């Protein structure tokens, strides 16, 4: 995935040794509004080559909120460490935005990172960098056509953006950590969690998903 060169820069096990993948399910309704109908997404992928919709505006606050909210799913003694980890991953995602020319705070980019990271974890395979830009365009258009997102204010959009980016980065980092240091128990939990998170976003048969230069589709 696009984040490979970033999260692999340090000891990968540090990313999954602190927080269990299953606890990332503590996401609020704004994340769950990101459910995509694949037929719309496929059409978006075809149109993306001709036009790219403007990102929805989000409001960056002085203090990140999603990291601490998500950390509440962990035991009290682990929450500060988990929150620090999530804040680090969100910062790292900002570096990916810069690398791929994605405007900071673009929720379409965060949704693409979420999908890519969970695909990595579900299949235990890297995500091809060459396909990431197309996925961003596709997810941006899918969101732009979703009335649920239009009902969210910029602060709530920012919350959803942060949640998506954190989950995508965390799952990608977990997959890369497992490639360096295998752990059968963690691998099983990672695959199960990734399927659950993807099912929240994408309906249909997850085993039929494919990613190409045109974006995501179900073969």
From TrEMBL:
Region (Disordered): 42-61
One Pfam family hit: DUF6683
InterPro entries per the UniProt record, alphabetical: DUF6683
Name of this protein: Uncharacterized protein
Organism annotation: Rubrivivax benzoatilyticus
Lineage, uppermost ranks: Bacteria, Pseudomonadati, Pseudomonadota, Betaproteobacteria, Burkholderiales
């Amino acid at each position: 995935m696009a984040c490979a060169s970033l999260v692999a820069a340090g000891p990968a096990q540090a990313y999954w040794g602190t927080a269990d993948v299953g606890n990332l399910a503590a996401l609020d309704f704004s994340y769950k509004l990101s459910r995509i109908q694949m037929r719309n997404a496929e059409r978006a992928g075809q149109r993306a080559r001709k036009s790219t919709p403007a990102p929805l505006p989000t409001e960056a606050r002085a203090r990140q909120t999603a990291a601490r909210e998500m950390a509440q799913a962990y035991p009290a003694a682990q929450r500060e460490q988990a929150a620090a980890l999530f804040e680090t991953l969100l910062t790292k995602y900002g570096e990916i935005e810069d690398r791929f020319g994605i405007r900071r705070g673009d929720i379409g980019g965060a949704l693409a990172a979420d999908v890519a990271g969970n695909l990595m974890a579900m299949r235990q395979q890297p995500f091809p960098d060459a396909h990431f830009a197309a996925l961003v365009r596709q997810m941006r258009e899918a969101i732009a056509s979703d009335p649920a997102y239009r009902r969210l204010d910029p602060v709530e959009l920012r919350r959803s953006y942060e949640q998506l980016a954190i989950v995508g980065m965390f799952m990608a980092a977990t997959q890369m950590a497992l490639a360096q240091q295998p752990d059968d128990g963690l691998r099983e939990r990672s695959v199960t969690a990734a399927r659950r998170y993807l099912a929240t976003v994408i309906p249909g048969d997850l085993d039929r998903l494919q990613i190409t230069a045109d974006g995501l589709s179900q073969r």
